[in-house]
Amino acid sequence: MTKIFGHRGAAGTYPENTMPSFKAAIDFGADGIELDVHLSKDGVPVVIHDETVDRTTNGNGFVKDLTFSQLKTLDACCRFPEYTGIAGIPSLEEVLSWSGTSNFLVNIELKNDRIQYENLEEKVIQQIFTHNMQNRVILSSFNHDSLMRCRSISTELETAALISERLFEPWNYAKTLSASGIHPIHYAADQQVIFQSQANGIQVRPFTVNDDTTMRMLFRSECAGFFTDYPEKALLLKKEII
User: Fold this and answer.
1) pLDDT in tens, 57-83
2) Which residues fall in a coiled-coil region (predicted)?
3) Residue 201 CB-density burial (10 A; 0-12 exposed, 13-18 middle, 19+ buried)
4) For FRET with 73, which of 54, 59, 117, 235 sits at 20 to 30 Å CA-CA?
5) Residue 159, exposed/middle/buried by CB under 10 A (0-12, 13-18, 19+)?
C-alpha cells in the first residue's frame, strides 16, 4: 500500500523541518516524515534543508559556521509568522527521541551533496541505533557516494538514491549502490519506472508530489510511497481511491 511521507513535515501549511510541522504530519495520519540533516560548526546533526539559515530563519550564514547553541537561538517560522517563538531548528536527536515513542517511518536526507560534512554518516547512524530506529529509518541523499559509505557502516539500514532527472533503468542503477529504493523527482517516476523498479525489488518514492492528478496515479500504480508538502490532502485522496 502506498505510504505517504510528510515532506519536511507538513511543509505546505507549517514551518518546514520543525517540530510543529512533523507533529502535524503525523497527526494528519501520514505514514512517515521526511527531514534534512546538516552538521553544525560543533558537529551536531541539525534538521534544516538549506546550507544556510537565511531562507527559513531570522538569521543568516552557513549552518556549518554556526554552533548548535547559535542555531537554537534562531526562529524557523519561515512563511508562517504565527509560529514565531515555537518553531526553531531541531536537532536530529530531538526528532528521533520524539519519533521513538511511535511507529511511523522517518526518511533522513543527508544534505552533503554540496558541502562534505566530516563524519555526517557516522553521526547520523549512531543516533539511529541509539534510539533503536534502525527498522524505521530510510537514509537518502543526492550524494550517492555517501549512500555507499552508509552501507559500509551498517548493512541493516535501508538506503535510497535521490534522483533529479530521468535515468536509464534506474532500478539497475540502484542495485549498483546496494540501495533498496529510489526517490526520483516526480516527473521522472512514470508508471513504467514504478512497475519495473518494484518488480526488481527497488521501492519507488517520488518527490515532491502536491497535485491531485499525480497523487491519484501513484496510488493506482501501487507505488511504494511519495513525499508531499500536503499529507492531509494525500490522505483524503487515498481514502477516495481505496
Assistant:
1) 999 999 999 999 999 999 999 899 999
2) none
3) exposed
4) 117
5) buried
Give the 3-state secondary structure of the chain. CCEEEEECCCCCCCCCCCHHHHHHHHHHCCCEEEEEEEECCCCCEEECCCCECCCCCCCCCEHHHCCHHHHHCCCCCCCCHHHCCCCCCCEHHHHHHHHCCCCCEEEEEECCCCCCCCCHHHHHHHHHHHCCCCCCEEEEECCHHHHHHHHHHCCCCEEEEEECCCCCCHHHHHHHCCCCEEEEEHHHCCHHHHHHHHHCCCEECCECCCCHHHHHHHHHCCCCEEEECCHHHHHHHHHHHC
Residues carrying an active site annotation: 7, 49
Q: What domains can be seen in the chain, in order of their start residue?
A: 1-37+104-239 (3.20.20.190)
For residue 121, the model assigns a pLDDT of 98
Strand-strand pairing, 181-184 and 158-163: parallel
| Predicted structure pTM score | 0.98
> Please, are residues 88 and 72 in contact by the beta-carbon 8 Å criterion?
yes
Write the pLDDT tens digit of every residue in 102-139.
999 999 999 999 999 999 999 999 999 999 999 999 99
How far does the chain reach from its first CA to its final CA, in angstroms? 10
Residue 241 pLDDT level (bands cut at 50, 70, 90)? confident
- Using pLDDT thresholds of 50, 70 and 90, give the confidence band for residue 191: very high
Q: How many residues does the chain have?
A: 242
Contact 186, 206 (CB under 8 A): yes
Task: Provide the pLDDT for residue 115.
Answer: 98
